[in-house]
Amino acid sequence: MAEVEAAATGASESPEVEVAEASAAEGGAAKAPHKLQRQWAFWFDIQSKPKPGAAWGSSLRKAYTFDTVEDFWCMYDQIFRPSKLTVNADFHLFKAGVEPKWEDPECANGGKWTVPCSRKANLETMWLETLMALIGEQFDESDEICGIVASVRQRGDKLALWTRTASNEAVQVNIGKKWKEIVDYNDKMVYSFHDDARRDKPSRGGRYTV
């Protein structure tokens, strides 16, 4: 457990084993855990100065995979709050088996809806509301969703909801509208293709908006 908390302030070792043991010890007395429809995984990424020759994503680490409501709350309450992150760090919640990278087969042809967060309180609230919507399968197009990223940056924090099939405008717009409702966001929300970012040719204003 302590290793993940250290990661939120700059460590880079994966804490998966220690976290799993701590969670099992704390939840040993629990009865009939509430199973989720699928497994999810928390990841973290501390983007310090990269080592020469280091590949993008080399600092990305999987922290914990879970499939019960109880394990989710244990991990969220103790560790995975954006307020615990330092600048230039990310928390991710993705479906188990999907890595939060453009290169992952589930993400390769996808994109993301992005919401800027001007205040830490807004980031924390919208992050939690999105997490609960994802593990609670509140999206009609839940199979199209890969995961969510919370990013803390000096110039402004943001959330990004990653999806699988960027070219399917109708599905992406439906997801965007639903997410906008979930996080109670009133400004324009923008969708961008991962492929545009890979080619370093971002589309001004995004491909889709809601």
Automatic annotation (TrEMBL):
Q: Which GO terms describe its biological process?
A: regulation of translation
**Listed GO CC annotations:** eukaryotic translation initiation factor 4F complex
- Subunit: EIF4F is a multi-subunit complex, the composition of which varies with external and internal environmental conditions. It is composed of at least EIF4A, EIF4E and EIF4G. EIF4E is also known to interact with other partners. In higher plants two isoforms of EIF4F have been identified, named isoform EIF4F and isoform EIF(iso)4F. Isoform EIF4F has subunits p220 and p26, whereas isoform EIF(iso)4F has subunits p82 and p28.
Indicate the family of this protein: Belongs to the eukaryotic initiation factor 4E family.
| Entry GO MF terms | RNA 7-methylguanosine cap binding; translation initiation factor activity
UniProt xrefs under InterPro entries: TIF_eIF_4E, TIF_eIF_4E_CS
- The entry's protein name is eIF-(iso)4F 25 kDa subunit
